[in-house]
Write a structure and sequence with these properties.
The protein has 6 helices and 10 strands, in the order H-E-H-E-E-E-E-E-E-E-H-H-H-H-E-E. The chain is α+β, with helices and mostly antiparallel strands and 258 residues long. It has 2 domains: 4-117, N-terminal domain of MutM-like DNA repair proteins; 134-250, Helicase, Ruva Protein, domain 3, CATH 1.10.8.50. It has a 4-stranded antiparallel sheet with strand order 1-6-7-5, with helices on one face. Strands 2-3-4-8 form a 4-stranded antiparallel sheet, with helices on one face. A hairpin with a 4-residue loop joins strand 3 (59-64) and strand 4. The chain binds a DNA duplex (14 and 14 nucleotides) through residues 1, 3, 33, 58, 73-77, 91, 108-112, 114, 143-146, 149, 152, 154, 161-163, 217, 227, 244-247.
DNA sequence: AGAAATGTTGCGCT
DNA sequence: AAGCGCAACATTTC
């Protein structure tokens, strides 16, 4: 359930913990959703040194010196836990043991988190990539679809989930009830800016509040997608509606284009 | 104490 | 025929 800014912080902290360490052992505990056979994963990465950990869309990637990459998608409820010696985490899917004596447990009570070797390149650009600019957005928003659904569509932009879609639309002052191809060009440009600023600001905030975070999600600072708030930072009443099967928070500060 | 939350996939309807 | 809604996944948290 972590979203892009959380994952960004996790990747930074995981790199701090494990970069330059050799993977001694990789154990698959619950393989039902693991897309690469356990033996193949082990063979590809065991005994190799971890080169880097980074985020791509909603995935975390563990890149090894031998060129192999483990892709991890936490889905709704996946979580990470660092352990020493013994992993006592419940619902473990896999564990990575490094030569500094520390281990990383990947858990998911729903068993939905996925792991795969060498994930293939995706077409859609990452939300923080320079490729997500006003030209790209204008092209992709030429659609009769709902704007929030498009923002969350991983085939359009990778990395934006339910909570940050609401935050970005509020920041851009566009109602989530809007139809994509009715949004004027100037507002599309503003949306492009909001994508970057909202996500980057959130990452900074999370890092400030929880410098060593590798699990969970921090949402207490969100302006509108926040069940504890009645009013937006601008003082407008926060309303609810369901879009794409998910709870959507917005206010009348946001213009509806239909 | 019962609903809500969270992402993806795949299916069926319009 | 693009776009939407729904179910399934399974447990924790309010």
């Amino acid at each position: 359930m972590p979203e892009l800014p959380d994952l960004q912080v996790f990747s930074y902290n995981l790199a701090k913990l494990f970069k330059g360490k050799k993977l001694v052992k990789l154990n698959v505990v619950n393989g039902k959703r693991i897309r690469t056979p356990a033996a193949k994963l082990k063979k590809a990465c065991e005994k190799s040194v971890l080169n880097d950990v980074y985020r791509e869309g909603k995935e975390l990637r563990f890149e090894f010196k031998n060129g192999n990459i483990i892709g991890l998608h936490l889905m709704l409820h996946g979580a990470l836990k660092v352990f020493e010696k013994k992993n006592d985490a419940k619902f473990t899917i896999a564990e990575l043991l490094f030569d500094n004596g520390k281990g990383l447990a990947i858990t998911d009570f729903q068993g939905m988190a996925t792991i795969y070797l060498n994930p293939k390149e995706k077409d859609a650009p990452d939300a923080l990539s320079p490729a997500v600019n006003k030209k790209y957005l204008a092209e992709k928003l030429n659609s009769k679809g709902n704007i929030k659904n498009l923002l969350m569509d991983q085939h359009v932009i990778r990395g934006i989930g339910n909570a940050y879609a609401d935050e970005i639309l509020w920041d851009a002052k566009i109602s989530p009830l809007s139809v994509a191809n009715k949004i004027p060009a100037t507002k599309v440009a503003r949306l492009g800016k909001s994508i970057k600023t909202v996500l980057k600001k959130a990452e900074k905030q999370i890092r400030k509040e929880h410098p060593d975070l590798i699990s969970g999600e921090i949402r207490d600072f969100l302006g509108v997608h926040n069940s504890r708030k009645k009013e937006s930072p601008g003082g407008s009443k926060i309303k609810n509606v369901v879009i794409g099967g998910r709870k959507t928070y917005y206010t009348d500060e946001q213009a509806v284009y239909k």
